[in-house]
């Protein structure tokens, strides 16, 4: 399902070896799944992010003004996806909320800069705000946990 939504790995083995196995070994890894029987409808995952990892270092170097406040011991919200035919029914929001449930402190994510994108709208509606731009197409968003009204 990952490739159906994001389409950026040649096959499942490459996805597993180059991304998923590395991510799930990280501190504080969390995974939330939406299942209909054994059919996967959606997923979200993240982990504790630290300086020394590729993405936090890239953010710190590109947007130095946010490093001290936001980077280090933050929760990194890495992926959120709902299968195309199951979208628009609240599943993405529930996966988002469940992944962050019980966490405190800072959370960060990288996403498109397109404010009309469904994911960006979802994040904004949950309190995430833009912290800066990685480039003209990609922004970094942050939120303080617990989410307001969702402790
Ligand atoms: C982003 C995504 C997970 C949303 O899943 P979903 O199940 O459709 O989301 P929900 O139905 O829970 O919607 C939650 C909120 O998202 C926003 N949203 C979702 N779909 C939207 C759309 N088509 N247009 C505008 N806003 C939308 C709304 O703010 C909505 O709030 P509402 O419930 O008050 O209307 C899904 O569109 C997806 O998998 N997209 C492709 C992958 C992706 O971009 N992931 C994020 C990578 S950073």
UniProtKB/TrEMBL annotation:
Assigned EC number: 2.3.-.-
A Pfam family hit: Acetyltransf_1
Keywords carried by this UniProt record: Acyltransferase, Transferase
UniProt-recorded Gene Ontology molecular function terms: acyltransferase activity
Enzyme class: transferase
Annotated ranges, domain N-acetyltransferase: 1-146
Entry protein name: GNAT family N-acetyltransferase
Taxonomic lineage from the root: Bacteria, Bacillati, Actinomycetota, Actinomycetes, Micrococcales
């Amino acid at each position: 399902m990952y490739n159906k939504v994001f389409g950026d790995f040649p096959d499942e083995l490459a996805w597993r070896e180059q991304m998923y196995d590395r991510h799930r070994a990280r501190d504080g890894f969390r995974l939330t799944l939406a299942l209909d029987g054994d059919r996967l409808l959606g997923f979200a995952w993240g982990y504790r992010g630290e300086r020394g990892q590729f993405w936090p270092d890239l953010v710190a170097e590109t947007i130095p003004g946010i490093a001290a406040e936001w980077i280090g011991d933050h929760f990194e919200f890495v992926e959120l996806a709902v299968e195309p035919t199951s979208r628009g029914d609240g599943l993405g929001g529930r996966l988002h909320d469940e992944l962050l449930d019980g966490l405190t402190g800072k959370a960060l994510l990288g996403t498109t800069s397109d404010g009309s994108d469904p994911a960006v709208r979802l994040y904004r509606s949950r309190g995430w705000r833009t912290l800066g731009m990685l480039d003209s197409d990609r922004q970094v968003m942050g939120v303080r946990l617990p989410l307001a009204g969702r402790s």
